[in-house]
Structure formats: structure tokens, C-alpha cells
Amino acid sequence: TLGCECLIKVFGETVKGSLVMELLTNIVTFADPPSLDSCSRDVYKPEAPMKPKEAVYMVSKLLDALEKLHSNGVCHGDFYGHNILVKSEGSFSVKLTDFGAAFLYDKSSQYGRLIERIEMRAFGHLVDEVNILAQRSGLDDTESISAHQLLSEIGEICASATTEVSFAQLQNKLGGKLSTFHNFK
């Protein structure tokens, strides 16, 4: 689990090679997979807006997970909303799942930087989608406006073709801003 609450805990392996993982209850997929209409974009339910604080919290936890993975030379390889599980009953939580396309890579190789950059781009797309869902909440208090601005900033950093930023650098840059939204759990 790399010490990250956003990654599903693996407790062990059976003698036949099956994994024993934590049991998740009252949890749903964050998005549906792409449809023929959406082509390559996940499908979000229009009636399911997110609270802006939840949106920032979710992005923060996913950033933490991606930083942990990439700092250990692991690329998720399929970072989309339909591979994210959320629990909104009780305390809000998020889990990054489906590592079927994950692979190990050498961060120091000539391609290491590019691999992380590709996943950073996918993260940026998700941040933009999460921000749209948060804007649907209609909340316009100071904290919600700050959340939208922060999500927009993150999305712009991730999408910039001229910015070469790693997940660790992004996390360091935004750490203080993100932590102010962690108190709602």
C-alpha cells in the first residue's frame, strides 16, 4: 500500500496466488466507463455533484497515491474516474483501484520522465472533471470559491505542455493549500 490510505491494502497472498485485500463496503465507482457518445471520456451522472471540499480532498488523496506510485517507479496506466471508488456515507473516502494496466519503470531512464508526464496529464483531466462536478453543487461561499480556484490551478499545471513537474513537485508546491481542505472528514 506504500503507506497511502487511497490505495487498497493488500494483506497477503494465498498459496494459489490470489491476493487478500481489505474489504470495502458502502463504496461506489466515481464515474462510469466511457460510452460510445463520450468516446474516451468517463461518464458522470448529472445528478451527482460533489461538494467543493470533497473535490479538493479527493484530488489531494489521489495526488498522494500517484506520488507514492511514481516515486517507486510504478505507473498506474489507467488513471480515470471509473477506476476510482468513493464512499460518501459517513466520512468521505476515496480509493484508487484497477491496477491491471500498471507497470514498473526506471525513473532514471530516458523515458521515465515521459511516463510520469503522461500520467500527470491524465491526472489533470480528472482534476478538471472533478472541478466541473464541484461547480454543479452551486455552492458559492468563500471556501467553495477557493476550492474551485485551487482545482483550476492544479488542472492548469498538469495540462501545461511547457511545465515538466513531477507528482512529488506538485505535491510540495500545493501541500499547504491542499491541507486546508482536509478538516471536513
From TrEMBL:
**Chemical reaction(s) catalysed:** L-seryl-[protein] + ATP = O-phospho-L-seryl-[protein] + ADP + H(+); L-threonyl-[protein] + ATP = O-phospho-L-threonyl-[protein] + ADP + H(+)
Q: Which domain of life is it from?
A: Eukaryota
- Residues spanning the signal sequence: none
State the protein's name.
Answer: Protein kinase domain-containing protein
PROSITE patterns assigned to the protein according to its UniProt record, in alphabetical order: PROTEIN_KINASE_DOM (PS50011)
Q: Which InterPro entries match?
A: Kinase-like_dom_sf, Prot_kinase_dom, STE20/SPS1-PAK
Q: Name one GO molecular function term.
A: protein serine/threonine kinase activity
Q: Which family does it belong to?
A: Belongs to the protein kinase superfamily. STE Ser/Thr protein kinase family. STE20 subfamily.
| Span of domain Protein kinase | 1-185
Q: Which UniProt keywords apply?
A: ATP-binding, Kinase, Nucleotide-binding, Serine/threonine-protein kinase, Transferase
Q: Its GO CC terms?
A: cytoplasm
